[in-house]
Amino acid sequence: MNWNQVEFEASYGLFSQIPPCETIEIAFSGRSNVGKSSLINKIFNRKSLARVSSMPGKTTTINFFRLEKVRFADLPGYGYAKVSRSEKDRWAGLISNYLHSDREIVLVFQLVDMRHPPTKDDLQMIDYLIDSETPFVIALTKADKLSKKQREERLAALQQEIPCAEQITMVVTSAETGEGMDELRSIIEELAAE
Ligand code: GDP
Predict the structure, then answer these.
(1) Ligand 1, atom 12, residue with closest C-alpha
(2) Which H helix or E strand runs over 123?
(3) What is the CATH number of domain 3-193?
(4) Which of 5, 47, 52, 91 has the most crowded CB, counting CB atoms within 10 A?
(5) pLDDT tens-digit profile of 137-178?
(6) Where are the domains of the chain?
(7) In ligand 1, which atom is closest to the CA atom of 41?
């Protein structure tokens, strides 16, 4: 795939606005501030395909972009405490409507900050992905912030912290150093080739 040719398509704040699915889709999911925008920009070699914000919780839309036959969905970051109940409900509605829809979602990249145990919201998402049999890969973010020893400790702990960990593909990534990007790109390329 020519990673430089990704094109931004559109943003939607309501599930009902999203046009029908006519191609395979890969979604990116994670709590606010996990590093989702940074990771997306790194995969696609773009500075601001996804907006990296110093204000967590700003992205309240599903943003779509397209590369060749694959459409990517950047889901709104969840778990940001300082928003109103109604805004939280809107986010939850957007995410769950999207994931529950009959769209052809071939993979979800579920992001988890490698430095910390998964949050309650992360675990709820992971449980949902397992229960709904949605294929997913966990991208562990911000690996550059850990020493070699801390990284080993976190990798061992995650095996206990994440349900069915032994059956889940986990990729260690850093948007800072580019670690893991080739692996994420190969996963996408394989799906695009099917
Ligand atoms: P989002 O809310 O999930 O989209 O997170 P962002 O991509 O906006 O990142 C949140 C903060 O974490 C920003 O200050 C980023 O610069 C920082 N960040 C994101 N990814 C990494 C990473 O891999 N390494 C380091 N050191 N910082 C990161």
Answers:
(1) 35
(2) helix 120-131
(3) 3.40.50.300
(4) 91
(5) 999 999 999 999 999 999 999 999 999 999 999 999 999 999
(6) 3-193
(7) 7
